[in-house]
Amino acid sequence: MDFLKKYIRELVLGTLVLSNIFVWLAVYEKRPSDILTVYFLDVGQGDAILIDSPRHGRALIDGGKNRKVLTELGGILPFADKKIDVIIATHPDADHIGGLPEVVSRYDVGLFLEPGVESDNTIDDELKKRVEEKNISSLLARRGMVINFGDGVRLQILFPNQDVSNWETNRASIVARLVYGDSSFLLTGDSPIAIENVLLSLDSENIDADVLKAGHHGSHTSTSLAYVEAVSPEYAIISAGKDNTYGHPHKEVLDILSKLGAKTVSTIDLGTIKFETDGKMLEIK
């Protein structure tokens, strides 16, 4: 019995020590820094992007097609930290919002942003239901809106610039530009070439970015030569699933990116892709 009591006591003490380690790790990981981190999450054939600002303001743009986004978030965010300040659903296609209902249910979300277009699937109805059940503020994204993280990071909404309620869903995609110091990311949803042309006509000089998330998973319906020339990215991100039935990314897109000197990286090859920047230097991890 003395032997058993001794080891039960050691087990309890060990559990307490481990609990304290987890708590201090969480506190350590939440400390402010001067680094903006952007994750292009590996969610298979879909999109999900996590933004973590220097003071840990967070935005999740899209959530892939299923619960895999939960695994990705769980592997990145500190233990027991369930805060996401903003969720943006670029458009209501299943491969972009399929995982979002569960994210909304499991995380403390401050704001939900969407373009205001309807879908034939039922996932967007479920998503909006859960947003309402948790009393999360909801807004329609419109050009000119800016999400200011309060630490130098700003997310600028470039599109839609009008009501898109009766549009085809890809055309209604939210396009946003993330800026921190001299570093910038252009995040495009499934926006097709027709909308790229709209953005070029609205303000071609202010879509320049170091990192371009290629539209529609690298489909030839997006990422035109003129658009890439205007963006002039150092990196182009392809978010797609291995051996997907659509053949993404398409060769035409890869050729355009290569011709203009962009380094193309894909979740197919690398899994989750992580960028860090202090507003001056940009690194891929």
From TrEMBL:
Q: Which residues form the Metallo-beta-lactamase domain?
A: 45-242
Membrane-spanning intervals of the chain = 7-27
Keywords, sorted A to Z: Membrane, Transmembrane, Transmembrane helix
Q: Does Membrane show up as a keyword for this record?
A: yes
**PANTHER family tied to this protein:** DNA INTERNALIZATION/COMPETENCE PROTEIN COMEC/REC2, RECOMBINATION PROTEIN 2
Q: What is this protein called?
A: Metallo-beta-lactamase domain-containing protein
